[in-house]
Design brief:
This protein is mainly β and 580 residues long. It is built from one helix and 47 strands. The longest helix has 9 residues.
Length: 580
């Protein structure tokens, strides 16, 4: 613990009352873990509801494809219910694509097209288009036969898709965003069975061919190249995504691996960290990494561009049948659960770059105020918990869960801090502020300098002597009719004094003394002991009269008014005897 020298603050609590507060200030830092349980990642499932209720997934819907839409929503297909719809980040569903989907067309893959619309691969050689604003689905025929398993937005502004001809020949197709101008490019390998397709960083389209065990590339002019070198036998590449590293990444359910291929065709495979029999299926690029589904293991997983895999399973229903996967701009991961008829969201705790802080003086009755710090990962909500350090541990203060806290007597002698938890869609991170200095009580101390004089009852300051109860006035030096009387007034702080001198006793009726001009110190705004000197003297006319009457000894009374720096007036009376 590091404590700088303390300071003393004087506060006037009542007339002439002095309160001394010792404030300890310094760089006290107590290292201790935050007493909170954080949830770094949190999965929420949104299951099916009653049939045709627009706020939920349709019963027996078998959600299939999912993509982050241009409107901030997630868009998904329901293969079982023949629907296309959207879901907000909070899990609110809408189904504008209930109309326009032909019976038994079983919408599957879904992507955002170059025109900002959603494009869907369907059964029976159809491709569908739906605007984010809704309005129903428009379907366009292709020249292929059967299902359209993969759809992609090309660098040439067209829609590209995978399929096969009526004769069973695998092909790549292209159409404009108006649905016209369909052109197909057949593959020479009769074993080819195409699946996923995506635009690559080189401007070409890249696709998976599980039938041939290869990764293919097709230029926008239709030139096809297939790569097999480096791909394990039986890999059956399923889906493909353009990675943040400029390479193409693909799933290998047959060999339980993830593959990476450069635009030059060099393949690297990764198996470490993937659960046995997980069956990697769909893959999508995220921020700095890629995400893929593991339907046979009821998991979703993240793979970095160096190949490190992290799997997530807590909160996923057993046998969910995880299929497609998408990543939203806030970093949340969404995935479809076809067998559980649900959509799920994997959210992550926000991150903190500037820790919380505490302002205010740590003494009883004072209010401490917390600042939340700087966080990322919006939307972020906050919760608070004040803690006291005692016995080597941090303990929650009961009921202290607001950004402000009024210091209590029970905090005396203990440092305090605030825990601020940032919450994002069920996940959370807790960060502690630096500790305050130990809470200190009001303490009286010996005030250096002359004796402190205060009005009111006599008080005792520990460590010092008992102090008088009021300003005092006393004769200073001899008092005579000729020279007058000098009076010293002692105050706690700087003060101003005036006085009148009156004759008392038997001669009071015969003689009147004039008011004298007092001598006084200037009023100072700084509280400190002060002394005022007054000279009280009769006028020359009165002195001559007293001399003529042979008055050699005179009783008099000085009536003194003392005004202190706070505006308080104290009246004093002093009896004097004036000699010749």
């Amino acid at each position: 613990m590091s404590i700088r020298p303390f300071g003393i603050r004087l506060a006037a609590m009542s007339n002439w009352t002095v309160t001394v507060l010792i404030l300890l200030t310094g760089g006290l830092v107590l290292a201790a873990p935050a007493a909170a349980t954080d949830v770094s990642a949190f999965i929420t499932e949104f299951p099916a509801g009653t049939f045709q209720v627009s706020q939920t997934i349709t019963r027996d819907a078998k959600p299939s494809g999912i993509v982050a839409g241009p409107d901030g929503h997630l868009w998904l297909t329901e293969t079982g219910a023949n629907h296309v719809g959207s879901v907000t980040a909070e899990g609110v569903f809408a189904w504008p694509g209930r109309t326009g989907v032909s019976p038994l067309n079983f919408p599957g893959d879904i992507v955002v097209g170059p025109d900002g619309n959603l494009w869907v691969g369907e059964n029976r050689a159809l491709v569908g288009r739906i605007a984010p604003s809704g309005g129903g689905l428009t379907e366009f025929a292709t020249t292929s036969s059967g299902a359209v398993p993969g759809v992609a937005a090309g660098s040439d502004g067209n829609i590209w898709f995978t399929g096969h001809s009526s004769g069973g020949v695998a092909l790549i197709g292209r159409m404009s965003t108006s649905g016209a101008g369909v052109v197909t490019f057949p593959l020479a390998n009769v074993a080819s069975r195409l699946r996923g397709i995506v635009a690559g960083p080189d401007g070409a389209l890249w696709f998976t061919d599980p039938g041939a065990g290869s990764i293919g590339r097709i230029t926008t002019a239709g030139v096809i190249t297939e790569f097999t070198a480096g791909i394990a036998a039986g890999a059956a590449p399923e889906d493909i995504a353009a990675g943040p590293d400029g390479n193409l990444w693909f799933t290998e359910p047959g060999t339980n691996q993830i593959g990476r291929i450069t635009t030059d065709g060099v393949v690297t495979e990764f198996a470490s960290g993937i659960s046995a029999g997980a069956g990697p299926d769909k893959i999508v690029a995220g921020s700095g990494a890629l995400w893929f589904s593991e339907p046979s293991a009821d998991r979703v997983a993240r793979i970095t561009t160096s190949g490190a895999v992290t799997e997530f399973s807590a909160g996923i229903t057993a046998g969910a049948g995880i299929h497609d996967i998408a990543v939203t701009p806030d970093g949340s991961v969404w995935f479809t659960e076809g067998d559980a008829h649900a959509v799920a969201r994997l959210a992550f705790a926000p991150t903190n770059s500037v820790p919380p802080g505490v302002t205010g003086d740590p003494h009883p009755g004072a209010t401490l105020t917390a600042t939340d710090g700087t966080w990322s990962g919006a939307p972020v909500t906050y919760s608070h918990q004040w803690q006291q350090y005692s016995g080597g541990v941090w303990t929650d203060i009961a009921g202290a869960t607001q950004p402000t806290y009024t210091v209590a007597d029970g905090d005396i002698g203990h440092p305090l801090r605030i825990l601020v938890a940032g919450h994002h869609l069920g996940a959370s991170l807790t960060i502690a502020s630096a500790a305050t200095p130990s809470v200190v009580d009001f303490h009286a101390v010996t005030v250096p300098g002359p004796t402190v004089v205060v009005p009111g009852p006599t008080i005792t300051i520990p460590g010092s002597t008992t102090v008088p109860a009021a300003p005092t006035a006393a004769r200073s030096g001899p008092a005579s009719i000729g020279k007058g009387a000098r009076i010293a007034v002692t105050c706690l702080s700087a003060c101003r004094a005036t006085a009148k001198l009156a004759i008392s006793g038997p001669t009071a009726r015969k003689f009147k003394l004039s008011r004298t001009t007092p001598l006084a110190t200037a009023v100072d705004s700084v509280l400190r002991a002060g002394s005022v000197s007054l000279l009280l003297r009769a006028s020359s006319k009165v002195r001559a009269k007293l001399k003529a009457k042979h008055v050699s000894k005179l009783a008099a009374t000085a009536r003194i008014s003392v005004l202190d720096a706070t505006g308080t007036t104290t009246k004093l009376t002093l009896a004097l005897t004036l000699g010749r």
